[in-house]
Amino acid sequence: MPRYRADAIVVLxxxxxxxxxxxxxxxxxxxxxAALHAAGVAxxxxxxxxCNLMAADDPPVTEAAAMAAYAEALGVPRxxxxxxxxxxxxxxxxxxxxxxxxxxxxxTAVRVVTSDFHVPRTTWVFQKVxxxxxxxxxxxxxxxxxxxVIAARARAEGDIITFLMExxxxxxxxxxxxxxxxxWEEHPxxxxxxxxxxxxxxxxxxxxxxxxxxxxxxxxxxxxxxERDEQDL
Length: 233
What we know:
Blueprint: E1 8-12, H1 24-38, E2 45-48, H2 63-73, E3 81-84, H3 90-105, E4 109-113, H4 119-130, E5 135-138, H5 147-168, H6 176-186, H7 198-232
Parallel strand pairs: 1-2, 1-4, 2-3, 4-5
């Protein structure tokens, strides 16, 4: 029997194109997962994702199913593929993968695959949801973006992390009861009557982004002013 380094490879979904096709980031994630599976990192691959949290309608195909089909075309055996098709964001990726696959099977060691720019947010969220009882490591898929796009992505990710820290920063790590309350009572993607609205999430992230831009501009102007003052000395 082969000696695997993890119980499962978990691949996080990325929004699909309007026609249901996989965008570049999703293909890169599936390709990374296929390479890890072929290398014997884990005996199975869990593809996680239904659709984007802000999506108005259910998709014709889930992110998980679309990535799984692509991975199978790359050589991952169908028997080694599992789907998690309920999640609509990174919190859901962690929670529903835990609930549907990890807990029922006693799997505690996972290798998470997502895009390189998404790793900081994913690390923080998975630690919150799974806690210290799970051995979680990351194998990022290279986004192959140029420097300007990477910088923009990093700013956007920073804005989202700031909002998540406001929203669930006090959530004890690995507290299943607290996570259940978050999912089924607060979260707009899963709760029947959520305490937090989708529009509120969008508005807060946009507000945080505006504040960050103002701080960056004023910080830059302040530095330039100091440089001019120094030149006058």
